[in-house]
C-alpha cells in the first residue's frame, strides 16, 4: 500500500513547502527548533533512524508525529508517547468575514505566546508566524482567542494553535476561528487538516461538527538523546 503524504506530515512539509525551514538531509529532517519542534525521518530504515538521531543536540528534544508505530534508533529515547488523530476537511469551507477577527502579526507575537502558554494548544513559539498565518479575537485589547496555520504540504495546510482564554470560553470563539482559518486555507486552493490528541474528545467533536472527518490515528512521541 502506498503511504499517504500526511502519514508523516512533518517530513512531507519539510521536503516541500517548508524546505527553507529544515535542518537535515535526505534521510531525516527537523524544523529549526526556534520555529517548531517537529522532526521526521523519511522511513523506518536503520539509516533513516540513525540520521534522525544526529539531528538532536545534548539536552534537546523533538516531537515525532506519524501514522503507525514510531520506531527509534538506540541513540534516541521517547520521554512521552500519546495517541492522536488526524482529521481532514470535507471540502465545505468557504471564506467569510467577521468584524471580531483580526489578522495577527509580529507585533502580536508576545500576546500569542502568552495565550498559548496559558491554554496549551500544542507546540508554539514566538516564530510561529514564520511558517503560517494567524488570526485572533481581542476583548478590550486583550488577545482572548486565536487560530492559525502550521505545517504545509502540496495541496494541504494544517489548521493549528486553536485556543481560547478561560475567561472567554462559551462564546464559540474556537469554533469561529477554526471555521475562519479553514476557509482561508481553502480559499488558497489547499485542503485544511488538523491534529488532536485522541483523548481530547471535546475538540474532536467540535472539529467534526464543522466538517472535519477522521483520516487516521496518529502516534506522537517526544524524544531526546539516549545519552543525555
UniProtKB/TrEMBL annotation:
**Residue ranges occupied by any N-acetyltransferase domain in the UniProt entry:** 99-228
GO cellular component terms, alphabetically, are:
ribosome
- List, alphabetically, the SUPFAM superfamilies matched: Acyl-CoA N-acyltransferases (Nat)
Q: Tell me the keywords, alphabetical order.
A: Ribonucleoprotein, Ribosomal protein
- GO molecular function terms attached to this record: acyltransferase activity, transferring groups other than amino-acyl groups
CDD domains attached to this UniProt entry: NAT_SF
Name listed for the protein in its UniProt record: Ribosomal protein S18 acetylase RimI-like enzyme
